[in-house]
Amino acid sequence: ALELSVSAPLQGSETLLFGGPLGHITQIPVSLIAQYHYQIPKMPVNAYVGVGLAYSRILRVSLNAGGSNPLDMKRDMLGGAYQIGADIAIAQGLFLNLDFRHMQLASNLKDLNTKSLLTDANMAPNFFSIGLGYRF
């Protein structure tokens, strides 16, 4: 199967790896994942794994390295994604979907005052989702 997933805008708090808070970003993550489904005959659960591409568009950046030192980020991020999940039959053709998705994304942090590159920012958002599906 092939799954395209688009999220509503998400706001996240950003921190340094071993430091304090930097602020917030708002982003829209998208993933396109090829899935391999494994179903045991006459069982109501269809498990699957998937790998694919992740993309995220950063809509709003509110980051500050302290004092009057505002930061900005590259707005488009592209990386890999993987997923594990299960479809659970509810009725004929109707199923409940549960999954975990991990995305590996990266951006660049730069100082707005000096326009200099500070560091690469590795982001690894994890998503848990619940959905309803229909097969016809």
Please explain how this structure is put together.
Strands 1, 2, 3, 4, 5, 6, 7, 8 and 9 form a nine-stranded antiparallel beta sheet that branches. 0% of the residues lie in helices and 76% in strands. It contains no helices and nine strands. The chain is elongated, with a radius of gyration of 19 Å.
Labels describing this entry:
mainly beta, 136 residues, nine-stranded antiparallel β-sheet
Q: What integer is the average pLDDT?
A: 87
Strand percentage lies at: over 45%
Structural class: mainly beta
What's the SSE pattern?
EEEEEEEEE
Low-confidence stretches: none
Radius of gyration: 19 Å
Annotation field: number of helices: 0
Distance between the termini: 14 Å
By DSSP, the count of extended strands is 9
What is the percent of helical residues? under 10%
- Biggest sheet, in brief? 9 strands, antiparallel
What general form does the structure show? Answer: elongated
In short:
With 136 residues, this protein is an all-beta fold.
SSE blueprint and pairings:
Elements: E1 2-6, E2 10-15, E3 21-39, E4 45-64, E5 70-73, E6 76-91, E7 94-111, E8 117-123, E9 126-134
